[in-house]
Design a protein that fits this description.
By secondary structure, the protein is mostly helical. It has a two-stranded antiparallel ribbon.
Amino acid sequence: ADAKFFYETDQKETLASRVPGLSNVVYHAQLGSQLERMERVRAIASIIAMFLHADAEKAARAAYLAKADLRTQMVGEFPELQGVMGQYYALHDGEPAEVALAIREHYLPRFAGDRLPSTPISIAVAMADKLDTLGGMFGIGQAPTGEKDPYALRRHAISVLRMLIEKQIPAKLTKILELTYEVERHVKGVGDFRSELASFFYDRLRVMFKDAGYTAQELEAVLAPRPDLIMDIPARLKAVRSFEALPEAEALAGANKRIGNILKKAQGTAASEVRPELLADEAEKKLFAAIEEVRPKAEADFASGAYEAMLSRLAALKAPVDEFFEKVMVNAEDPQLRSNRLALLQKLHGLMNQVAELSSLAK
């Protein structure tokens, strides 16, 4: 009977009319009221909607109304109904169905393994809601420590990552963090959180995929270079696992590690391009020819996201790489010859490490 009374009373006012009252609801002492927070979420949601080719105006409208039901009697009495009542009241007010659904779904996922928001508009608002929390808290120095995570920031980060991966959103993490920072930096006391929050996201990816059965070496190979397009990470991990099954994999990973060490020691002394006329030894000529043969198809595979195919092509390089290291002195006395050989190794290193840092797989 009480619920029926609250429900009928709430319907006498629109959700939109309740939004200004959010100025009286404290979100966080340093980050302002729910009204101030809503404006930030609305700004972020509008931009994310563009990544999703969704209606930015509807995303902004849903974000504007998303917390308004906190001012209703129903949610005051039954807090677990926040979002649920927002959807009912929005539909009653004549708001578009997608806007009403986004009000309900922007809290998703609520727990590990929970379903994700179902529409692009819902995803835009849900992601914006979580990014505002993450950016704000990291910006005021409230990152989780040890087991303490009072604002569920780990869960929020995993939720954002799941949306990017499972909904195949082609947005780069650096771009997402930049747009979040552009909104959050106007809050007094919020510092530049981009680098720290990026590291936090990659740490969460390690946890996610370790739980999915990937090894520490596989995760290091893929995540150490910090691939910016998060939706690609499962495909990269799958490709690395397939590569490991190749008979040539162990030798190539070891060679890759050796090449990395050589280039590190010789930093800045490699020529910018390989000059074929300076290739003196037959073994280095063979390696150059093998790279030139593999490279166009491998790069085409990489550009199309066919990461398994790309890494499998590297198998053809094992024999010429082995022969090169057996017969060629990289640090030749002639500076031109040395510089050219380093350029050859640099070319090989760049080709081998586009999908993942293969040296991480070396035994």
